[in-house]
Amino acid sequence: MFWRGERDRERESKEQNGGPLSGQVRVLVVGDSGVGKTSLVHLIIKGSSITHPTQTIGCTVGVKHITYGYSGSSSSSIKGDAERDFFVELWDVSGHDRYKDCRSLFYSQINGIIFVHDLSQRRTKTSLQKWATEITANGTFSAPLGSGGPFGLPVPYIVIGNKADIAAKEGTRGSSGNLVDAARQWVEKQGLLPSSEELPLTESFPGSGGLLAAAKEARYDKEAVVKFFRSCRESHIV
């Protein structure tokens, strides 16, 4: 499989350069069919948009290499303490109903979850509650948090509203209130406003909050997503 080859090449490169490796974390990417999960995963891994994403059959796995730098480290710090590398396995789970009965096969040893919805389709955000309930009921979790979050989820998670570019265009025509709000938020994000120190988590579905993305335009909050991956890593090694 392609993702294994990519991970092996990254691993060999780091070993040749003497860099430490600190394992891997598994992150589910879930949401209704058509919300752009595959495009978003490609953007996170490759740093570029994908023109014609293929429909996900069951589940596909991509790997992102992360360099873990500890804040407050100085040049005199021991290298092993100041910087660690790890891999994030992004499990892109198909949202099509035909795979509903077998999706639980992919819900094992979870370290984190990315919930994705389409900003131009309100129902896809409402569906996130269904996804959270399904994963909680059928999943197993690696190094779960001490207390479960909303819907009993015991691992870190974030919500990403994709297709902000489409929502912004439709919102300017006044198609619905939530699209106008999405357009306003997207414009604010393009103004390079300082990102919050807190992870933009949402406490309930379909509550407010979360990140915005436009995968087809190769736009997402990279800093916040990497911070999320690091939080998954931290909970994994506690």
TrEMBL record:
Keyword Nucleotide-binding: yes
Protein name: Uncharacterized protein
Family: Belongs to the small GTPase superfamily.
Ranges of biased composition (kind: Basic and acidic residues): 1-15
SMART domains per the UniProt record, alphabetical: RAB, RHO
UniProt keyword terms in alphabetical order: GTP-binding, Nucleotide-binding
Span list, region Disordered: 1-20
Gene Ontology molecular function, alphabetical: GTP binding; GTPase activity
InterPro entries per record: P-loop_NTPase, Sigma_54_int_dom_ATP-bd_1, Small_GTPase
